[in-house]
Structures are given as C-alpha cells and as structure tokens.
Amino acid sequence: MNADQPAADRSRQDDRFRSTPRTVRSGQTLMKITFFGHSALQIRTEDTTILVDPFITGNPLAEPVVSAADLTPDVILITHAHGDHWGDTPAIARRTGALVVANFEITEYLRKKHGHENVLAMNTGGAAEFPWGRITQTYARHSSSFPDGTYGGNPCGYLVESGARCVYVAGDTSPFAEMAWIGEELDVSVALLPVGDTFTMGPRASLRAIRMLDPAVAVPTHFNTFPPIRIDVEAWAKLVHDTGFVARVLKPGESMAVETD
Ligand code: NI
Ligand code: MN
C-alpha cells in the first residue's frame, strides 16, 4: 500500500495528475479531493462534484478560502446533523438542486423544513449505485442532533468508490472494530479521519483506525477549527509515518489527486 513512500513523492505525482487530461490511465478516471477545513471537503470524479459536510459560513478555516455561494455540487453527503457538519446544506441544496444523501431523519428535516425534495435517505451499511460510482453509508460512533435540538438520527461515515478508487470519509467517530472489515474488503485510497480529539478520536487513537483501514494515504480532518480541537497536526503526521503509513495534511483550500495503489 505504498506505506513506505514519502508524502513528498506523492505530491510530485499530484502535479503530474493535474496536468493530465480527463482519463489518467485506461479505464481509470480522475478523482480529486479538495479540503475546505474542519470536515468540509469536496470529492470530484471525472464529471461529478460531491460535497461533504458543507460547514462554510462561520467556519474560521473555510471562510478565507471559499464561500458557500461559490459551491456547485451535484451531490451533498451529510454525516450527521451537528451544526459543524450540516452547516450551509439548506442554502447550497436549494440554490443548486443537488442530491442530498443522509440518514432518513436528516433528509426528512430538509424536505419538511426547507422544501428540498431531491434527497436520498440511506441507513448504516446500505449502498447506492450511481453512473459515476457507489456510496456506502458506514457506522460512526458519535451523536447527531440539529442545531435546534431536533433528533438527527444516527451519525455515519461514507465510502465513496469510483473506478478503482475508494475514499473513506469517517465522519465524527472514534475508532471502531468494524473498520477492520473496511480495510479487509476494500483497497482504501484515502482515509479522511477526524483527529482533533475531544469530540472524536485524537491523534493517538487515529493510529488504531489507520492500522485497521490500511489506507494508501491518511488525511486529517476535524482539527484546529476551535480551541477544544487544537492539535499539533505535524506531530500527528510524524506519528503516522513512524507507524509505517503515509499521512498527507491538506491546508484549507488545498487539493490532492486520489491515486490507486
Ligand atoms: Ni459532531
Ligand atoms: Mn463535528
């Protein structure tokens, strides 16, 4: 899984991907992640833009690099109803008409309170097929309620598969034993893991998650947005490298190409 490949080598490969036209290798298409800060990020396949947990307005990391009004997703994935994930979902969904994928409680809230009908309700372990790939809703050990206190169903994560690439968005969670199933059954290209501690796993616990998932690259999320989740993210990256895996820290606004093994 290229665990011994330094991160610097991977970023050189990213430059090569950026200058390459649509099809990278035969049968394998471009997939790119852009991180906006906290848990807000975007996954682009060749022709589809998937926005995850669009907490932009009021997000001190995201506001300097992106505005909610600039985002034009085809699909929005929501991991849970907490304000730092739900964020700008109603406004972006209404403006773009994007398909919003979440648990049933969240899609019903969006339909009834905000009149957005283009939704797909899923539940833990279920998968949905699309022309561009496949989404599986995964378990997450956390809680989920809307900013107004409404029950937000179970929190979740997502596996986003497109061609030979697989991106795991863990959502807010601590490590859980079934992460080993994900690692066994799929070649995870990129695992986006919360590492800010206090509300999710912290740096040390994330090593257990990374060992189970065995991703080609681990990317940290949910850190340094607010005082309770401030960490030394470079120290986290060193811990990951010292454990024999590849870490890549994305600055808000930064993108990376998703590679196959
Ligand atoms: Ni949360
Ligand atoms: Mn959160």
Task: Explain what this protein looks like in three dimensions.
This protein has 7 helices and 15 strands. A hairpin with a 2-residue loop joins strand 11 (156-162) and strand 12 (165-169). The protein has one domain (7-19, 32-250): Ribonuclease Z/Hydroxyacylglutathione hydrolase-like (Metallo-beta-lactamase, Chain A). The chain is globular, with a radius of gyration of 17 Å. It has helices spanning 7-18, 83-86, 89-96, 104-114, 179-185, 203-213, 233-242; strands at residues 23-25, 28-29, 32-37, 40-44, 49-52, 75-77, 99-103, 119-122, 127-130, 133-139, 156-162, 165-169, 190-194, 217-221, 255-257. The strands form 3 sheets. It has a 7-stranded mixed sheet with strand order 8-7-6-5-4-3-15. Helix 5 (179-185) packs parallel to helix 6 and helix 6 packs across helix 7. It has 261 residues and is α/β, with parallel strands linked by helices. Bound molecules: nickel (II) ion and manganese (II) ion.
Fill in the keyword field for this structure.
single chain; 261 residues; Metallo-beta-lactamase, Chain A; seven-stranded mixed β-sheet; six-stranded mixed β-sheet; 7 helices; binds nickel (II) ion; binds manganese (II) ion
Order of strands, widest sheet: 8-7-6-5-4-3-15
Number of helices: 7
What gap, in angstroms, lies between the N and C termini?
6 Å
- CATH C-level: Alpha Beta
Q: Strand-residue fraction?
A: 25-35%
In the CATH hierarchy, what is the architecture at level 2?
4-Layer Sandwich
Bound ligands, each once: nickel (II) ion, manganese (II) ion
Query: What value does the average pLDDT take?
Result: 91
Identify the quaternary structure here.
single chain
Tell me the name of the CATH homologous superfamily: Ribonuclease Z/Hydroxyacylglutathione hydrolase-like
